[in-house]
Amino acid sequence: MNNVEKLSQPSPPTKEWKAIVKEYAKPNVEKAAWQLINTVGLYVLLWVAMYFTLMLPGAWKWGATIPVAVVAGALLVRVFILFHDCGHGSFFKNKKNNDFWGFITGTLAFTPYQHWRWEHSVHHAHNGNLSRRGVGDIWTMTVDEYLSASAWKRFVYRLGRNPIVLFVVGPMFTFMITHRFPLPNAKPKEKISVLWSNLAIAAMVVALGFTFGWAHYLIITLICMTVASTCGVWLFYVQHQFEDTYWESGENWDYFKAAVYGSSFYKLPKLLQWFSGNIGFHHIHHLSSKIPNYNLEKCHLSHNMFSSVKPLTFWKSFKCINFRLWDEQDMKLITFADLRRKLKADGLTA
Fold it and tell me: CB burial class (10 A; 0-12, 13-18, 19+) of residue 161?
């Protein structure tokens, strides 16, 4: 069954799948507390460890510190997932607990909690909707949009889709610079939250800068944030930018299909699944953002409706790097090379 045939199939009754996911949309304070200990607690311990490794003599200093910084960066991805759950109100049952720990974990990840929560809610509400793109997603053009674009816009799009820009330069710029400013259409509450977040981040930076020494702190932060932001954006990318994903316009857009077919089941090795906070079960997360990360796998396995979803494996996911444009005719993402072949077959040029 090709993607056109698959996406043309009717979705199951809303009551049916909602009844299933509802059973797993139940926060558990013990599990949440344990995740804070084994994630935020461990992240703090890694910074303590780096403080002492920097006291080692000669080459031993950075030979020991850099690997710990890399692990801390990977762990920061998991910290972000806890932050992400708090933003959805799914980590704890109590809103105050979600908001408190969302602010703390957001500070560690250089991300304003309230503003990001609002922006991310827009992504969830319009995921896969061609008519509602532009907030909280990765810029994706259709074939027709690309062909009708100016040479300058095509250049900017290609540049933005370059892997170095998309997964290294862009993520660092987003977390370190873009997150310091609210979007123009944000409400006053979200705009003020960016200010409070910036003040908390500044306090953290000053405290650690004086503790570690500014040069040491900046090098460690650069390593941590490069690893964390690159891995984080990569996860977000493959969760929606795979070949047989889902995009539809206006009234034809379907919530269930956007969740199950427009969000990948990224099947990772157990260690990577732990570091990524189970977010590979993204099809489940988009069906119900109220399911905490520690219940996603259980929900996925609970019904054939979910567990039969074709997984995207770790090694196959690297193929997603090449996808650039949404082909509305074949209903799939294609590469620039695919576009050239299609145009050549029609006697046209890009």
Answer: buried
Query: What Cα–Cα distance (Å) separates residue 338 from each residue in 161, 237, 278?
Result: 16, 20, 33
Q: How many residues does the chain have?
A: 350
Indicate the angle between helix axes 60-88 and 214-240, nearest 10 degrees: 50
The reply to whether the predicted model has a pTM over 0.85 is yes
Confidence of residue 7 (pLDDT cuts 50, 70, 90): low
Number of alpha carbons in the 13 Å side-chain half-sphere of residue 282: 28
Side by side, the strands of the sheet bearing 141-142 are 141-142, 325-327, 332-334
Strand bridging mode 332-334 / 325-327: antiparallel
Count Cβ atoms below 10 Å from residue 142 Cβ, excluding itself: 17
| 38 or 131: which leads in pLDDT | 38
DSSP states of 269-337: -HHHHHHTTTTTBHHHHHH-TTS-GGGHHHHHHH-HHHHTSPEEETTGGGGGGG--EEETTTTEEE-HH
Residue 350: what pLDDT? 63
* Exposure string for 165-186, b = 16+ CB within 10 A, e = fewer: ebbeebbbeebeeebeebbeeb
Indicate the domain borders of the chain: 25-130+163-231+248-314
